[in-house]
Amino acid sequence: MLLASSLLVAALLQRHAAAQTVYLVADTGHDKIQEFSTSGAYLGVFASTNLDAPTGFTFDSAGNLLVVNSGNNTIERFSAAGVDLGAFINDSTHLNAPIGAFSSGFSGSIFVLSATNNVAQYNRGTGAFQQAYGSIYLQSPSYYYGFNGIGYVTSTGNDSIYAFQPGFTPSPVITSGLDDPSGIRVLVDSNGMHNVALVANDGTTNDIGVYNLSNGTIEGSFGGATLVQPHEISFANGTNDLLVADGGDAQVFDLTNNGAFVMSFGSGILDDAQGIVQFTAIPEPGDTVALLGAMALAAGLVYRRKGAAGPVGAN
What we know:
The protein has helices spanning 2-18, 294-300; strands at 21-27, 32-37, 42-47, 54-59, 65-69, 74-78, 84-90, 98-104, 109-114, 118-123, 129-133, 143-145, 151-155, 160-164, 171-174, 181-188, 194-201, 207-212, 218-222, 230-235, 242-246, 251-255, 261-265, 273-283, 303-306. The chain is mainly beta. The protein has a single domain (2-306), classed as TolB, C-terminal domain (Neuraminidase).
């Protein structure tokens, strides 16, 4: 029994050691979520059931993956193993070609952005509708939240970035120097203050613009010689590099924070890459128990895969 228990412990520890961070990419043209290693190696299809033009990701309160289905106006939920758990949100009244979403721990809600001038708010645990926000023309937006609950919404229709807080009317913070803004990430300092926005300009410039959120001015840009049609921005695992989902090239580019090319992946596999998210296998919080014998330890080591929070300030 002791030998069997020790072997089980060894197997579980080996599984833990083998846990890896991966990238999931919304393959809109193929109606699939594709999985890649952090070195860009293709690992296969993570999910495809009930997907219809997936464009983005977020997570529910239990850590399940939520996929924005722009083709059928739903938010589909998947387990960490890629098993379809059904539609988490199915709301044709408030969702019309949804194209982005974000889960806010600050408010305990999920915010879904539609292409037809709408931000809808839902309960992060149950998916129940809470309220809707309009008054801005949204198209191909991304979403970002910081520590103080302020979000930033890209508005392609009027080339602007809006600051957004639940219960308040969105207000523009950047209104110049943008060219069909799509993805956005905001750099946050140690005090939780938002200083710099990195924005994917999906128009004629096809670059990543660097913007000062204090005064709304552009400070520079990079990636214009590499990118074709940038959609979403994320942070590369354990680095300051940026991952850019490029729909025009149907691949993902890894760029340093000054625009130098690191690598690309997904060419020949993806068709119109829209969204990207980092996903990591980690121990279940609180499940490591005291060493009271091999059987007790084996029973205590339980693991699950869960979406990683990524670098400070990343969704």
